[in-house]
Amino acid sequence: MAARVDIGEPQEAGVAINTIAYGTPDGVITVDEDGDGIGQTAQVPVNVEELRALAEETGGVARTADSLSDLESVYQDFG
């Protein structure tokens, strides 16, 4: 479970935070943490609920993107 972000300051300043949940619940990355040239796989599922809550609590908009074309579309929507 991720730690909650303190959104008090953006809320007080009237700053809306838009979020993009880019990825899938089964997302993984390969990282060479020890520099030996052999990558270790780490799970990195996107937390759609947390990002949606952050956007809603600040008056922003939450979007999701599962692919590059989805992501490009979201950026166009955001302007």
Features:
single chain; 79 residues; two-stranded parallel ribbon; 4 strands; 20% strand; extended
What does this protein look like?
By secondary structure, the protein is of the alpha+beta class. 35% of the residues lie in helices and 20% in strands. It contains 3 helices and 4 strands. The longest helix is centred in the C-terminal third of the chain and has 11 residues, at 48-58.
In short:
By secondary structure, the chain is an alpha+beta fold.
- Main sheet properties: 2 strands, parallel
Radius of gyration: 16 Å
Q: Looking across the biggest beta sheet, what order are the strands in?
A: 1-4
Helix content: 25-40%
Oligomer: single chain
Question: How would you state the average pLDDT, rounded?
Answer: 87
Alpha-carbon distance between the termini?
A: 32 Å
> Number of helical segments?
3
- What share of residues are in beta strands? 15-25%
Judging from the principal axes of the Cα atoms, what is the shape? extended
What is the β-strand count? 4
Topology order in helix (H) and strand (E) letters: HEEEHEH
Low-confidence stretches: none
Helix/strand structural class? alpha+beta
